[in-house]
Write a structure and sequence with these properties.
It is a single chain. With about 110 residues, this protein is α+β, with helices and mostly antiparallel strands. The protein has a four-stranded mixed sheet, with no helix packed on it. This is Putative endonuclease/exonuclease/phosphatase. Keywords: Endonuclease, Exonuclease, Hydrolase, Nuclease. One of its GO terms (molecular function) is endonuclease activity.
Length: about 110
């Protein structure tokens, strides 16, 4: 089986310090050329809907250590609304509600 993983790249005068990582995330601190520091998390939500709650739990665990501005970006492999879906495969409303709850939790930080 092939392995996956994430890559985080930047250019310019930004400085990035890695804090922790897995196949599904890269977490670190980014310092802008002006000295502003941000928490950044490159994220990949589990493609298996049955395992996705572990993805949301990972973000919750990281959130407990965030004390500055935080940018989370990547592919969450989930929708906030059924209207975002194109194609045949229906998305479970239960999955969407769990994702909404995770995003609400994170946005309240």
């Amino acid at each position: 089986m092939g392995g996956g993983g994430l890559l985080l790249m930047w250019k310019g005068d930004w400085k990035v310090e890695g804090l922790n990582s897995s196949l599904d995330h890269i977490d670190g601190l980014a310092t802008s050329p002006t000295g502003d520091v941000f928490r950044i998390t490159r994220f990949y939500g589990n493609p298996d809907a049955q395992q996705r709650s572990f993805s949301w739990e990972l973000l919750r665990r990281i959130s407990y250590t965030v004390t500055i501005g935080w940018l989370i970006f990547g592919d969450f492999n989930e929708l906030l609304d059924v209207l975002e879906k194109n194609g045949r495969r229906e998305r479970s409303m239960g999955q969407i509600l769990k994702f909404r709850a995770a995003m609400a939790f994170l946005s309240a930080i």
